[in-house]
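Sequence and structure are kept together here, with a separate record for every protein. An example record follows, reproduced without changes.
>
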Amino acid sequence: MLQRIAIASLGVLSASLCTQTVNAQTKVNGQKIAVTTAVPVLRISPDSRAGAMGDVGIATDADANAQYWNVGKIPFAKKKSSISLSYTPWLKDLVPDVFLAYVAGYTKFGKDDNQAISGGLRYFSLGNINYTDINQQSLGTGMPREFALDFGYSRRLSTYLSTGVSLRYINSSLATGAAGSANINPGNAVAGDIGVYYNRTTELDNDKASTFAAGAVLSNIGSKISYTATRRDFIPTNLGLGVAYTYKADPYNKITLALDVNKLLVPGPESTTDTAGNISYFYPDKGVVSGVLSSFGDPAGIKRVNAALGAEYWYQDQFAVRAGYYYEHKENGDRRYLTCGIGVRYTVFNLNVAYLVPSGSGINRNPLSNTVRFSLAFDFDSFNDFGGGNNN
């Protein structure tokens, strides 16, 4: 029993630490019941560029972090090869030692670089945890952590269209170091993404141009994850749709507006009433496919659709200013926040910083307030230019 309590508590902790990701709610018979999944870290935006634009990234122009957002974008990347490193101190206003680290990269090959392979690694540390049982007796200390390892392949299908797939191994160790946790194992799962991307640029007069892009991605399609022999939980399967429009006013100035909508594809809770009229709530034991399909029939399903709106301005392709807004229905977690950030691009590297603007006060203060993300990207073909003395 102590083991099950410990892992249940850690699961709640993991979900609360990832408030920005999967902590939806739905109403059953008028009652708000939380809709959660395991490993919600899979839905945390890991990179600073998207983080500064309200967590929008499905249809924006491709970079190394497309491995997370939409693997189908990568054949449209401007650089042949790139790698990105990102670091996010998580919930820094509440705890000092929780963080998310992310590394991703790709390289293109084939005729006209129309194909690409890519990869990514996410590592989420929940810091030092003091485990206790239901009687608040110490069960020891530990450092829970989760990680996901990705590999992807993408290909351009035509002048304007590309697609990609990726496979993912997920490991979640939430009870490491807890006394009496012999029956609590690290959770393991496998999943995949499927993404498509459309991008078309129209040249206008006087060095002006406009680009319309659209993307769709089905992410984290995979097995359930289990920590014990008696329970299996859904991972956060998600459907994302995005559009982006870029207007190049002249050789020096361009602006992008982008919009993403996302829907969590897991079933909501159901209710049952006993002979005395008491209502209880439970998650149905469904398979992965039936769980995805039933999420569309959930009466509160439309309230679990989140939206992100972002803007980005570039000057001479060297300095960027970004802003964004994230919206979630009040019965779906009620996460609403503004973001902003900057980017600097030099011949060899790109540096991006994002900031989540504080909101609320007291017990209503957004726990993600003052979140700062840092990303550093390297373009390997730019190294060749730099070594050859060409900085254009």
Notes: The two ends are 65 Å apart (CA to CA). Confidence is low (pLDDT under 50) at residues 1-29, 388-392. The helical segments are 2-17, 48-52, 66-69, 288-297, 380-387. The chain has one domain: 2-387.
